[in-house]
């Protein structure tokens, strides 16, 4: 049976192959059999300061990357979070159901706020808004990378809490996390997640990096002093990470990658790795530039938001009624 699927990516930097493997690849897979809602979460992006011109450019860029990566707007609703005002409204309602302690435990908040002199309140209540994103569509499945698992657990708790207090209403969503590639690591440090907001561009491969830059970044990627191409995340986190990337881009299992490169050197493996990544990203980039210059993204986003609003309005009305808000008329 068709399930409802929802997910989103922040327009807060250039998307990386981590976002692609952890999230977008699964969006593309899930769109065929399910009712899908894929957003660009601009309301989340502003939980850290964004320069307005950059935010606008990044927002359109992420939407175009969705399409270039294979999301078909005829099958899935692609839209901007801020074009569906119900997100902000349900976000507030969810904030009032969330406990401070729950938000204080969020590792993403701890990471993003640690050592900062001033931290915006939006960054703290961000998980309540994310819960609203998912619950607004009564999503069954949420394709995300490993780092979003904790936020999704909170979403499930909040849905359960609402149902308990106000009567059965929300679907309890399930995370959809890939087995390989749920946490692609940084190229300069195998213990850190690859992140689009890293100040070191050499630590990630952006989906829009030119082929020569991709080759250079992989050739400079940190590796251990050994020589065996073996999947062992404890003792060889960097090589294991590169093997995961290879497997995901080549459509192979980790075992097949290990067998293929048994007894070979890191240098040759890294060169081949760049090759398989470029083989996917080059056509994606070409499609991306076509979409950007065609100007069709505005229409795609308008259509996606219109469909999303319809369902979002229905859910929000149900929530408000159950919570005891006086109807408008
Ligand atoms: P964001 O924008 O940080 O990341 C978008 C998606 O990419 C995944 N991801 C990764 N996967 C594997 N390896 C990595 N190195 C890597 N880096 C990022 C993330 O897990 C995510 O799936 N809070 C979310 C956005 C959001 C959302 C939602 C997601 C807002 N509302 C509702 C799902 C449902 C975030 O900041 O993702």
UniProtKB/TrEMBL annotation:
Annotated binding of L-tryptophan, by residue: 133
EC code: 6.1.1.2
Binding sites annotated in the UniProt record for ATP: 10-12, 18-19, 145-147, 184, 193-197
CDD domains assigned to the protein according to its UniProt record, in alphabetical order: TrpRS_core
Catalysed reactions listed for this entry: tRNA(Trp) + L-tryptophan + ATP = L-tryptophyl-tRNA(Trp) + AMP + diphosphate + H(+)
GO MF entry, a single one: ATP binding
UniProt signal peptide: none
Residue span of motif 'HIGH' region: 11-19
Biological processes per GO annotation: tryptophanyl-tRNA aminoacylation
InterPro entries on file: aa-tRNA-synth_I_CS, aa-tRNA-synth_Ic, Rossmann-like_a/b/a_fold, Trp-tRNA-ligase, Trp-tRNA-ligase_bac-type, Trp-tRNA_synthetase
SUPFAM superfamilies: Nucleotidylyl transferase (SSF52374)
Enzyme category, top tier: ligase
Cellular compartments per GO CC: cytosol
Taxonomy, superkingdom: Bacteria
Subcellular localization, as worded in the UniProt entry: Cytoplasm
Keywords on record: Aminoacyl-tRNA synthetase, ATP-binding, Cytoplasm, Ligase, Nucleotide-binding, Protein biosynthesis
Family, per entry: Belongs to the class-I aminoacyl-tRNA synthetase family.
Quaternary context: Homodimer.
NCBIfam families according to UniProt: trpS (TIGR00233)
Protein task: Catalyzes the attachment of tryptophan to tRNA(Trp).
The protein's name in its UniProt record: Tryptophan--tRNA ligase
